[in-house]
Amino acid sequence: MKLGPFTLSRTTGGPATVEDLRALARRRLPAPVLAYLENGADEEVTLGRNREAWRDHRVRQRVLRGVREVDLGVRIAGTHLDLPVVLAPVGLAGAYHGSGDLAAARAARAAGTRSIVSTGATHTLEEVAGEAGGGHWFQLYPWGDRELTGGLLRRASTAGYQALFVTVDVPVVGNRLGERRLGMSVEPVVTPSTAAGYARHPRWLAMQARYRRLSLANLAEPGGPRRIADTVRRQSIAMRPDLDWDDLAWMRDQWDGPMYVKGVLDPEDAALAVRAGADGIVVSNHGGRQLDGTPATADALPGIVAEVGGRAQVLVDGGVRTGHAIAVALALGADAVLIGRPWVYGLAADGQRGVARVLEILDAELRRTLHLMGVRAAADLAGRHLVPHEAPP
Ligand code: FNR
After folding, report:
1. What integer pLDDT is reported at residue 393 of this predicted model?
2. Does the beta carbon of 90 sit less than 6 angstroms from any atom of ligand 1?
């Protein structure tokens, strides 16, 4: 998508920012589903800091740099992307809109980027590969035993997935109070007592009907029960709190393509991941949904770039909502960003068109930001494009 610098300002009406799409999503989704999407762990300190920390940085405005066209292209996992924004894996996408993972993958491809299909997707990874073009990326939760995990890796490889993202920050589930209070659990079903308040609402009834059709499509046994709770029970899908670096090395052996380790916040872990054969790191605190009180990802990023940058690619997610945040992330050394909740806002608001709109907004914002900074290419962004932090008094 090639928006000129003035195109967006001429567009009137409709959602103009990610925040606008969030407002639409908030109007459409029943409270328990919205809580599941929006909430963070415990006191939500990390959730809040993720967004603020990008805003703590000032970008340099340089003028008269002769920049006619801005190039947003980057190369991630051996693939050229037209913009440095990837759709993060988000489970249960079908809960927000029936088109779920398919809409995400199609919108990503149309915008010249990729979506990372979650282990917890509500479409099978084969359906996404078959119906949304090939070359997508797969996220693995190393749940369950090696037979299950190895089987998923073989299926992803056979279906043509080109990169693997192993999520390592969920040894146990974070304490997400918003969804707990509303009765959401592994299965997106509310308890009878909490459902009472919504029971007659037409939107809620429609949502419940959709839930009954939802399954953890990648994990359900063919021909077996499709209900999420049954799948979890039968497949002994449980978090494995005792996973270690040997398990990661084993996964490395099972996967031929590029492998990224998602959910790293500490430079020592980044170095260990690279030593275990990772091609890249995703600096992430799971959108503030796991360990509360960790650094924001913008604060953790520079230390990890210093440790492994040059040896491995470094991606980052958490609180990225604007072109400014993307520019800051790249200037701090990230190769690209992932967005989680933002694409789901678009999905909930308007299916595939809504996801496309989110990507279009971020493309236009980043393009405009780079023009105003006097920077020709997103891949050129570096520390020199930020105003140095003032020394504390
Ligand atoms: C997630 N995330 C996630 N990560 C992952 O590796 N596998 C998954 O299935 C999920 N599921 C999931 C569900 C929901 C509702 C959310 C909000 C997040 C984490 C996700 O990939 C990403 O790290 C964060 O969402 C990034 O933060 P922002 O962009 O949401 O602020």
Report:
1. 57
2. yes
